[in-house]
Amino acid sequence: MKTLITGSSKGIGRAIAIKFLSEGHSVIGMDKLPSSIENGNYTHIMSDITRDLPDIEGVEILINNAGVQNEDDINVNLVGTINVTEKYGITPDIKSILFIASASATTGSEFPRYAASKGGVVSYMKNVALRVAQFGATCNSLSPGGVITELNDRVINSPTLWRQIMELTPLRKWASKEEIAEWAYFVTVINKSMTAKDIIIDNGESAMNKFIW
Asked: Per the structure, how many domains does the chain have?
C-alpha cells in the first residue's frame, strides 16, 4: 500500500519506513532532512510540515511521526500534524492513519509545551477517527514512553539519570525504535477493528508518574 511517513529521516520514523519497506509497501518519506534510505520502493520528499505541502495523491496509510521537543512544539507537533492529516488523510483512498504521540499526553510528566502538544495530538486523533470511519479506515495513536533514540542520549548516557529512570520503570528497560515500528505496522496494516484508541508503550513507567531529565 502507498504509505506516507513524516519525520522519516531518523529515529522512530526511519525505523517505521524500513519496516514497511521490508513488508513490500511503497513508502514516501517526508522530512526537513535528507534520507539515507536506499530502496527502490522509497521516495523522499524534503518538506516542512508547518508550511506549504506538496500534492501527493492516493495515500492509503498515513503515519504522523514528525515532531520536536522544546523547539516550537505546538506549531510542529500539533499544527503541522493537523496540516498533514487534513491534506493527505481525509480522503476516500485512506485505509489507516496513525499518530505517534507520547506517554506524556496522558501523564503530563514532561516539558509543558511538549506535553500539551502531544495531548492535543491524541484528542485530534479521536476527531479524525470519527471522520475517516465513513471510508472504513482506522485511526489510532501510539504513545511511547522512553525509546532508545539519539534524542534521548542526554539521559541514556548519564549513569545517574539512567539509574533513576530505571528505578521508576517496572520492566527496567526502554523500547527500541524497531519495536515501535512493529507496533506501527500492526496498528495500521493488521488491525482492522480498533479505532480512536491511544496505546501507551512505556514499560510501565506511566504507572509511576515521575519525570526525570
From this structure: 1
